[in-house]
Amino acid sequence: MEKSHVNLSLARQDFRIVCAESPEYMKALEAAVNERIDGIRRKYPSMSTMRIVLLAMLNMEDDLFKAGLDRAADEGDPQEGEAQSGAKSEEDDF
Known about the structure:
Number of helices: 4
Radius of gyration: 14 Å
């Protein structure tokens, strides 16, 4: 499978991602994540970005659990969930 490089902006931070998924798919993920972050930011404008992102992550993980899609958490292997995404920061690409 061919890998591509995609520039993303998540929580106002820029990333260059190496991934097996299409750039369009990664941009859709970017939009979904930023939508969650922006929703929390609107509710709590004085909250730090770190706390906003952590709450967004918690909300997303809750959705995965409720949908039965978080197999890695069910199996007790948090690394497996990361590996399944197919995306990593270019900084981690050796």
